Amino acid sequence: MAVEAATPESTGPGRPEPVLLTEPADGVPPVVDSPVALQAAATALAAGTGPVAVDTERASGYRYSQRAYLVQLRREGAGTVLVDPIALAGSLEPLATALDDTEWVLHAASQDLPCLAELDLRPARLFDTELAGRLAGFDRVSLGALVERMLGYRLEKGHSAADWSRRPLPADWLAYAALDVELLVALREAMHAELERQDKLEWAWEEFEAVRAAPPAPPRAEPWRRTSGIHRVRSPRQLAAVRALWEARDAVARERDIAPGRILPDSSIVQAAQANPKTEAELTALPVFGGRQQRRRASMWLHALRNARRLSADELPVASPPNDGPPPPNRWADRDPAAAARLTAARAKLSELAEKHQLPAENLLLPDLVRRTCWAPPEDIGEEAVARLLREKGAREWQIALTANALSTALHAEPAATE
C-alpha cells in the first residue's frame, strides 16, 4: 500500500476529510502460531527492505503480567506478520535473527520494548513516532492523531483495552492489530521529514537511542503505597492493613496471572482498612466483600487484617513514604527561599527555551532533574560544571547544549529581598 505524507497545506484548516481505514490493504494475514510458520515469516521479513514496523498487544487490566500476547510486524516486501508468542511458548529466535540489524519503528516504544525484551527481541536501531511527534511540538501525538495529521488517514480504534490473552482472537481484533502497523513506516518517513525540516533530526536520534538503551525500571520500594484512595487512610495501623491486604491480593494475582484489580478493587482494600472488620460477618457486610468470589477468600482477607493488627509499633509503616528527592515545590518558599528562587528562575528560562524551539518543557529537560538541581545545586554553578552535571544525570547532548547556560544562570538567582 503506497502512502504519501500529507503536505503542510493539507494539514491546516480546510484540509480534506481523512480516509477511514477499517481493513488492511492486503487483508488480515493468518496468525503465526507454529515453528514452521514462524520460520517462513522470519525468512520473508529478512528478505524485505527498509525499516520494520513493530507493535504488541498486551492484556493490561486482565492479566498480572505485561507479556505480549500478539506481536505485529510489517516490512516493505514482506507485508504484515501477526505472531502469537503464547502458542510459540515465547520462542521467537528466528525473528530476532531476521531483524538483527534492522531499524525498528514503534509508537511509544517504551511501552512495548519491555515485553519484546522478554521475547529476546531487541532493536539495534529505533525510531519512535510518538516521541518524534513530541519533539516536533505537536499537541496530539497518539498514533491515530499523527496518522491523520501526517498521512491523511483515520484509524478505527476500539480494541486497545481488550483482553488479548483470549483465544482464539476475533477477526475484527486481528484487523485492528494489523492496522496498527499498516502505516507505521509511512508515518516514520513523514515524521523524519518533519524533524529534518525543523532541524531536530539529530535531537531525535539521540532521544531514540536513549529509549532503546534504557535499562529496565527498578522495582518500586513500596508498591502498595500506590493503592488508589490511600490518601484517605490516616493512621499507621490502617496503612499496615492496606499493605497486608495489598500483599495478599498481589500473591493471588501473581500466581493466577490475573490483574490485581480483578481480584479485589483498590477501593475495597481502603474500605476494609478503615472499617477493620474482625469477623467474617463484619467483612462480608462491606461492599464487594459480600460477593461470592470474595466470600471464598474471606479467611485470607481476615488473616491479612489480623496480621496487621498484631504488628508492634515499630513494625508499622510510616505515614509518609521515604523520599530521597526534594519536597514538593509548593513548600520550597517556606523551607528554602533561595531554592525556590532558583526553581522559579529555571522554570521561566526553560519555558522560554521550550517555546522558542516548539518543544514540551518536559522533553527539553526532565522536571525531576531540574528540581533536584535547584534544590541542591553543585558547588560550582558555572555553565561547564552544570553541563557536566546534566551529562552525569543522563541528559542528552542536544539538551545540554540548549539548557546548560540557562540553568547555570538560574542557579545564580537570589530570593527577593523582604522589608
TrEMBL record:
A molecular function (GO) term: ribonuclease III activity
UniProt entry keywords in alphabetical sequence: Hydrolase
Pro residues bias locations: 319-330
UniProt enzyme class: hydrolase
SMART domains to which the protein is assigned, alphabetical: 35EXOc, HRDC
Enzyme Commission code: 3.1.26.3
Record protein name field: Ribonuclease D (Partial match)
Organism: Saccharopolyspora erythraea (strain ATCC 11635 / DSM 40517 / JCM 4748 / NBRC 13426 / NCIMB 8594 / NRRL 2338)
